[in-house]
Amino acid sequence: MIRVVLPAHLRALAHVNGEVRLDVDGPATQRAVLDVLEARYPMLVGTMRDQSTKQRRPFVRFYACQEDLSHEPPDDPLPDAVAKGTEPYLVIGAMAGG
Amino acid sequence: MTGVRVLVGTRKGAFVLTSDGARERWDVDGPHFPGWEIYHVAGSPAEPDRLYASQSSGWFGQLIQRSDDGGKTWEPMGNQFTYDGEPGTHQWYDGTPHPWEFARVWHLEPSPGDPDTVYAGVEDAALFRSTDGAQTWQELPGLRTHGSGPSWQPGAGGMCLHTILLDLSDPARMYAAISAAGAFRSDDAGTTWRPINRGLQSEGIPDPDAEVGHCVHRIAMHPSRPEVLFMQKHWDVMRSDDAGESWHEISGNLPTDFGFPIAVHAHEPDTVYVVPITSDSHHFVMDGKLRVYRSRTGGNEWEALTSGLPQQDCYVNVLRDAMAVDSLDSCGLYVGTTGGQVYASPDAGDSWAPIVRDLPAVLSVEVQTLS
Predict the structure, then answer these.
(1) Cys-Cys crosslink for B125: which of B178, B188, B328, B355, Cβ 3.0 to 4.6 Å?
(2) Residue B6 lies in a domain
(3) Using CA atoms in the order B232, B237, B243, B248, what is the torsion angle rounded to 10 degrees?
């Protein structure tokens, strides 16, 4: 079980409160987590990554275990603590604007 | 009982304002989609409780929302806007070729006869259509792939397709306008397009009467006289009497002819409204006064409408999609400002009162006349 924390706008869009808990078959990677997340909440498709290229949107970041995973290859394994559900996978709306 | 429903898109959410035919007391519902930019909300003429909303965010991209109960509840619909084929390039600000990139939906235009058909004008400029109630979107590529496309350049607000006009007397005829490419017309239901910019003079481009490159801000039409078009250009208020084949200036005695919105009275095809602002470098109304200007002669002779509108210390703008008319017997007129006010006039502009004063900056105002 993987825990995902969404930013407030996406929680509202998906009608969820608090963390989302996902069962991911196979290796726990960023791509696998986001695929499962989008399959369960189709209204999130396109809000975190481009629908066609699957590239991360510029002002969306992915954090876990005090690390910025945004630039890591999407098929790399997530940290064990995320894969085991000890630590959440964080989807962040980047600080931007002024 | 008749009434009106005013659909307001703002920088931070959507609002639905409703009133009876008197248009004196209002119910304010919202914000819907709080925190998101709502560029446009539009209702289906064929099924008035069917609404479409363009919801977007610099962080999370584009969503399309649909309501089937007049805005009480909403459901996200399809949000994949993929250009047809190889997108190609247009001109970038520095003159270099730049790939067409989807940014957002500026304008939604529901079909007059089919609640499931709706057109979307997007940035980077292209026209999309859905025929399944916004679940899926297909581009009508003939506009973007017009031979002049590679020379189009974005205006300061982005290269947006912001105006879509459907000719109710001829389903094959439609118009689109793009900043800063100009106006275009299709006579085959959107399959092919050609520029209709003859007569426009734009001093800000190298060739002032070029075929394309004009920064058209908005076009309006009265449904009973679809060959007559009114245009608010970057500078100049223009009119065409031949479906856009040629244009002539009707700025007349306006104190400034820079502005964004333009609208036509619901029952008087020669009564036209604009909201002039100071200049291209001062995007606020002149002299601290919010004045809607009305021409009852199809242009050239304009009168300032001020009763009930702020006449001192006012420095707002009214954006291109933020003026609308209802079709009650006494035509109502509505403007939304960048200061967050929505003003209503139940008597064609003679007198005004605020519906709300403190919304986020208003991006769009549409009105539905309900029976």
Answers:
(1) B178
(2) no
(3) -150
Record: contact A9-B57, CB cut-off 8 A: yes
For an interface test with A, which of B59, B84, B102, B137 has the most A Cβ atoms less than 10 Å from its Cβ?
Answer: B59
For residue B193, the domain's CATH number is: 2.130.10.10
In a domain, residue B300? The reply is yes
Instruction: Establish if A93 touches chain B: CB-CB under 8 angstroms.
Output: yes
Residue B63 lies in a domain: no
Kindly determine whether residue A93 and residue B59, on different chains, have CB atoms separated by under 8 Å: yes
* Residue A76 to residue B32: CA distance in whole angstroms: 38
In a domain, residue B216? The reply is: yes
Cβ separation of B57 and A51 shorter than 8 Å? no
Give the strand pairing for B37-43 and B27-32: unpaired
Question: What CATH number matches the domain at A2-93, 3.40.225.10, 3.10.20.30, 3.90.1170.50, 3.40.50.720?
Answer: 3.10.20.30
Range of the domain at B256: 40-50+68-354
pLDDT reading at A96 higher than 80: no
- What ipTM was estimated for this complex? 0.94
- Mutation target to probe the B interface, by most B beta carbons within 10 A, among A11, A16, A38, A51 is A51
Q: Check A46 against B76: CB less than 8 A apart.
A: no
Residues sharing a CB contact under 8 Å with residue B293, sequence separation 6 or more, in sequence order: B254, B273, B274, B275, B276, B302, B303, B304, B305
H-helix or E-strand containing B356? strand B353-356
**Cβ under 8 Å to B: A residues 39-78:** 43, 45-48, 51-52, 57, 59-60
Q: What is the pLDDT of residues B139-162, one digit of tens each?
A: 999 999 989 999 999 988 899 999
What pLDDT digit, counting tens, does each position of B257-285 carry?
999 999 999 999 999 999 999 999 999 99
Strands A89-93 and A2-5: parallel
The number of domains in chain B is: 1
